[in-house]
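Lab channel / #folding
Pinned by the channel admin:
"Please post every new chain as: sequence first, then the structure tokens as a reply. Keep commentary short and put observations after the output so the thread stays searchable."

First post following the new format, from NK:
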Amino acid sequence: MAAKKIKLFVDAHSFDKEFQGAQTFIRELYNHLLAHRPDIDIYIGVHDTDNIRRLFPLLPPQNILPYKNRGINILRFVFDIPAYIKKYRFDFAHFQYVSPKKMAGCRYIVTMHDMLFNDFRTDFPILFCLTRNYLFGRSIKNADIKTTVSDYSKERICNYYQIPADEVHIIQNGVNNSLLQYQSSKKKAEDWVAEKFGISSFILYTSRIEPRKNHLLLLQKYLKLKLYEKGISLVFIGKASIKTPGLARLIKSLTPEQERFFRWIPRAEQADLAAFYRACRLFVYPSKAEGFGIPPLEAAICGAPVLCSSETAMKNFGFFAPYTFNPANHTDFEQKLLLAAQQPPGDAFTSQVAQHVEQQYHWQKSSTIFYNLLQANFHCHETKNSDLRHEGHPELLWRV
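Reply from TO:
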């Protein structure tokens, strides 16, 4: 008799909003599981079903479960998700940050990517911090399987919520080299960006815009160093997520000459993003706080010279040294920005970094760790079920 498949539900609500790191985590992890783990029956819940169909080509269409549009997104926890769990009798349900009330028979997996709203409260709205702190804390404490994406995030989660370290598992983000499929060389990428966007010789920063991401600092130093007078442009790619008034004011104050060398692109297709990574003169990541930090790794895979913050989770990115900095030290950042912009690291260094990133951060490793967690928990649960059968209590099986 064929072994029973693990039935797993994934809440993919993050795909109904602006781009964020949780989308990359879900997309890459579950596409890898769909391709290599046929013993897992994966279902995905979401509003935008067409988008999921496109992003998860191996997912059977009948396994995409639509949420009803009720105007208030959190109502999916009250109506849609409990109904689906009851109907399909899922063994596991996987949530990012927030989970609904526990349902008998289904074990909850909660991935909490970071605790930045507590460690850097001045960079987030007060209501955001208060609501997240309660909802995230309740969810991670009650989860059957607790995961996060970095050593830094694990330490902060365990410290703040008083959770034993052995209960929190690290499923680190990987980097997908699919970005390399779009342009075969730096020259072709440069031509792509020049022809489509009219940009050449540029510094790049990709990230959604919010205060902790430090777009303001980078633009200030770019202007102070007058890099535009050297023909070097500055490009931001990412949607505004949390208001950053200082950045908005500075952008409005740009002179016509400065405006000519500054571009903000809220959203880019994968082919365009790949071209920007490959073509950039320098990729700068000045964020002061990250739960992980995927963009500098993506840039490195594409062969871009990277100047990266060394704080929070990015302390693990020592392989970028000496092109690292503490964003709180503005003088050091300014000096390193000027040096790297004028004399970016050469091909030998960037190739070495790209090779290290490819070997260290890959989804095969992360998906294997996640799969083993599922299997261990599943078989433990099945053993309990077997004990109940032998004891003559089949009516309790769905309550375990």
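NK: Residues 386-390, 393-400 have pLDDT under 50 and may be disordered.
TO: also worth noting, Residues 72 and 78 are 11 Å apart (CA to CA).
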